[in-house]
What does this fold into?
Amino acid sequence: MNPTAITPLILTYNEEANIDRTLGRLTWAERVLVVDSYSTDATIDIVTSYDNVDLVQREFDHFADQCNFGLAQIDTEWVLSLDADYVCSEALIDEIRALPENPSMNGFSAEFVYCVFGEPLRGTLYPPRTVLYSRENAEYHRDGHGHRVQIDGPVGELEAHIYHDDRKSLARWFDNQRQYARLEAQKLRAADDLELPDRLRRTDVWGPLLVPLYCLFRKGLLLDGWPGWYYTLQRTYAELVIALTHLDAFLRTSDDHSSNGAESLPE
It folds into this structure.
């Protein structure tokens, strides 16, 4: 596939810790589009230092809306959708170049290697994601705190991986988890048809209990030393916050119902 037929699309907000590594692997692209949510750190300076990057800014409302806005600014046939902490492997770039000009698929998914301060882990809970797709056949939809691209047509799989290497501060990560937990809890309460991980989350018990065991033993992160423990603790904390947020909403709703049905106490 000719690189001139592909535009990488990246969303940013205060990504000075990550964006340089991500853009550094995209110098092959004729044009990279960054949709920024009015960053206040050095993100803008870093982004504009790359000659092949176009920057547009939009007030953030939701990831899906930001992505759909970005798609409207792209005129190439194909889009490579990346987060600001995704670093393309050389193998992935070579594989994309080797794709036919008119592939039979309308999109391609890739798997991720999670990194902790640059150290790759042997496993992750992060699922594969459709990252390369035909622009005319794609639309983003909300999915809990995140977003999911819906592709009209078949989606294939890329063999090479992408590095997920987020080096923002831990304080920023904690803030994000509280926001994500609220949206994930809303999703759990509203959805009727959930996949197994979300069904376990909705119990408010099994998610926080199973995640550390799954990470350390099923994914083998016990063998990755402190980076493996760091990731395991992060994922366990995230599950605990989701469970607590979901349970809090349930108990408050139950308390409201009880209060409405209770007789008034005598004065």
